[in-house]
Amino acid sequence: MNKKQLYIIAGVSGAIATALLVVFLIKKRRKKMSVIVKGEYSVPANVPNRADALHSFESRKSDGFGGKMSTKIREALMKMYNEGINPEVTDLKVNVDSANYKVTWEAKLEPSKDGKAYIGFVTRGSAGGGADARALSQIDKMKEQVGGEDYKVVLDFKNPKGIYIRQYFYKYTKPNNFPKH
Prior knowledge:
The protein is an alpha+beta fold. It has five helices and six strands, in the order αβααβββααββ. The strands form two sheets. A three-stranded antiparallel β-sheet has the order 1-3-2, with helices on both faces. It has a three-stranded antiparallel β-sheet with strand order 4-6-5. The termini are far apart.
């Protein structure tokens, strides 16, 4: 090998090492920017239609009962947006304990992978027999009522045991009000 080839190899090796370091630093920074939002709620014994209340992740029209999940997540998304970050919900875990009428959930918020500001979060669903069709039938009306754009399913939830629940969780943008940074 002559000196020219050695210089080329050294230069390429340096460029690769620099690129790997940049990727590592970006991933490390991204982890620091992630936010975890958690919540839980229990349905009291005296609440009417307890099965319906069990999947009231936000609140019910009939009595206002619910876990305020969307409210808590949207507040955290707005906080990130106001800090100059285009946010999105990247992961959502939901646990429904039908026997004890208790729900726990955890959402992971991170900088948006596509650069859009997903400042909205909304959910619709149903419980009991026929829940799949009822839940799906609510989606178009929800989008019309909420407005927004770029709706993407974060989680299509089916309760694995106990009271059957089908719930759709969406993130969305509102670029006219909250353009990407």
